[in-house]
């Protein structure tokens, strides 16, 4: 007698780690949608980092001292490219 397997989706890591599972087919559209949202998330995170570095570059020496950052550290951080 054969045991029936559990049908899992591609994103269900807990289910896919179990024995005797059947992976549900994933079409092109769900993968494209996932890729689209990953790209959007990456771009949004980089924009947030860029804006925070711009704000850091505009702080005065007194404001930097308040947050415990030296002017040299602030300049070094603000000069980094957005993808780092």
How is this structure best described in words?
This protein has 84 residues and is mainly α. The chain has one domain (6-78). Helix content is 57%, strand content 7%. The protein has 4 helices and 2 strands; from the N terminus they run βαβααα. Strands 1-2 form a two-stranded parallel ribbon. It is elongated, with a radius of gyration of 23 Å. The N and C termini lie far apart (56 Å). The mean pLDDT is 81.
Concise description?
A two-stranded parallel ribbon has the order 1-2. Helix 1 links the parallel strand 1 and strand 2.
What characteristics describe this protein?
mainly alpha; 4 helices; 2 strands
Adjacency order of strands in the biggest sheet: 1-2
Indicate the percent of residues in helices. 55-70%
Going by helix content, strand content and strand pairing, the class is: mainly alpha
Tally of strands: 2
Structural domains: how many: 1
Total helical segments: 4
- Which stretches of 5+ consecutive residues score pLDDT under 50? none
Radius of gyration: 23 Å
Distance between the termini: 56 Å
Q: Tell the overall outline.
A: elongated
Sketch the topology as an H/E string, one letter per element: EHEHHH
Largest sheet: 2 strands, parallel
Mean residue pLDDT: 81
Into which percentage range does the β-strand content fall? Answer: 5-15%
How are the SSEs ordered, and which strands pair?
Blueprint: E1 6-8, H1 13-16, E2 21-23, H2 28-57, H3 61-66, H4 71-78
Parallel strand pairs: 1-2
Helix pairs in contact: 2-4
